[in-house]
Amino acid sequence: MQVSSPFRSATASAQVHIALADRSYPIVIGSGLLGHASTYQHVPHASTALIVSNTTVAPLYAVQLQNALQARYPKVLLLELPDGEAHKDWPTLQRIFDALLGNGCDRKTVLFALGGGVVGDMTGFAAASYMRGVPFVQVPTTLLAQVDSSVGGKTAINHPLGKNMIGSFYQPQLVVCDLDALKTLPKRELSAGLAEIIKYGPIADMAFFDWIETYIDALMASEPAALAQAIQRSCEIKAHVVGQDEREQGLRAILNFGHTFGHAIESGLGYGHWLHGEGVGCGMVMAVHLSQRLGLVDSAFVERLTRLIERAGLPVKGPVLDERDNAGRYLDLMQIDKKSEAGEIRFVLIDGPGKAVVRPAPAALVREVLDTCCA
After folding, report:
1. What 8-state DSSP symbol labels residue 83?
2. What is the DSSP string of 314-344?
3. Is 154 part of the annotated catalytic residue set?
4. Is 163 a residue of the active site?
5. Is 132 one of the catalytic residues?
């Protein structure tokens, strides 16, 4: 007897709509999308398209994308950037501007970000800045980028003192989540992406959290249908939040659950030592411990979330950033956070399962959490 799959078909494409008036756009999710010209049929025409990728992804997928775009763009250029978070900086961003100016690109030129979150963030920032704004398309090739960084129009580069502190809000024309691109994703990168999927449960949808717990083994095994369902639900939640608060004046800040602690880890160790998703996973453990100390959740929920993050192959103990005063080092780094106001660190906390709140916390409690949660 054939047992029916609990997932929708991965071969049937799905679409999630980001509703932002004249800045609205679709997220398309499915297999075999990247290399088909029809995927891009509603993207603006232009004389030139510039694909921005990196030295890891371009050899795998750039030719497919170039072939798909040639029907719409007489000239399709390719720029390969160095790979890794360590290169999400001004000099690398300048290479995109060099390519645009060096090839005489005009304000109708369309940029295509082919890669993970670093490529997507930098390409979006370049598109927002070049000639005060040109169209761009996100073609994310990592799980993390497909469920988070490619959606919602946040673009940025890092600064040595803080992650993603220099950038702009600038929406793409289209997001293309091709499940086939995940077939070449290393296990560590897959786990990093699962962190951003897991976060949506505690902040917005505990039924989704239950589903992730049930199917975490299928997700870890890169089961296409399971990934398709997880990506779609993650994008639906993010689309709902972004549609209400595009520029993070209130509600959208809940999407940063785990990020305040996680960004401190990334910048404290040096960009690239931990993947962004690894920092977020560990940061969620820290944030839920802080939520418990403030009386917002019980120890059972802390244990439940920590266990799921561990099952996803993510670290649940933070690194020691300073042997003399580790908690003090974390606090210093967390002062440089986009949610901080008037020098006060504001944390995304779980105010009961499925609901998040953004608020400050006493430094003494934060120190207790860091002492507990760091190796």
Report:
1. P
2. ---SBPPS-SS-HHHHHHHHHHS-TT-BTTB
3. yes
4. no
5. yes
**Annotation says 42 is catalytic:** no
Query: Which listed residue (87, 88, 233, 252) is catalytic?
Result: 252
**240: annotated active-site residue:** no
Average pLDDT over residues 145-165: 93
Catalytic residue among 196, 246, 266, 278: 196
Give yes or no: 276 in active site. yes
The pLDDT confidence band at residue 339, using thresholds 50, 70 and 90, is confident
Q: Alpha carbon of 233 to those of 14, 30, 328, 370: distances in Å?
A: 11, 13, 38, 32
pLDDT in tens, 256-285: 999 999 999 999 999 999 999 999 999 999
Judge whether 238 counts as a catalytic residue: yes
Mean pLDDT taken over the chain: 95
From 154, 233, 339, 346, active-site residue: 154
- Out of 184, 201, 224, a domain closes at 184
Task: Provide the pLDDT confidence category of residue 2 given band limits of 50, 70 and 90.
Answer: very low
**Active-site residue 263, yes or no?**
yes
- Pick the catalytic residue: 80, 189, 248, 278? 248
Whether residue 281 sits in one domain with residue 159: no
- pLDDT confidence of residue 10: 55
Q: Does residue 343 sit within a domain?
A: yes
Report, as an integer, the average pLDDT of 234-254. 94
pTM over 0.90: yes
What pLDDT, on a 0 to 100 scale, did the predictor assign at position 328? 97
DSSP helix/strand/coil, 165: strand
Tell me the C-alpha distance between 184 and 196, whole Å.
19
- Residue 361 lies inside a defined structural domain of this protein: yes
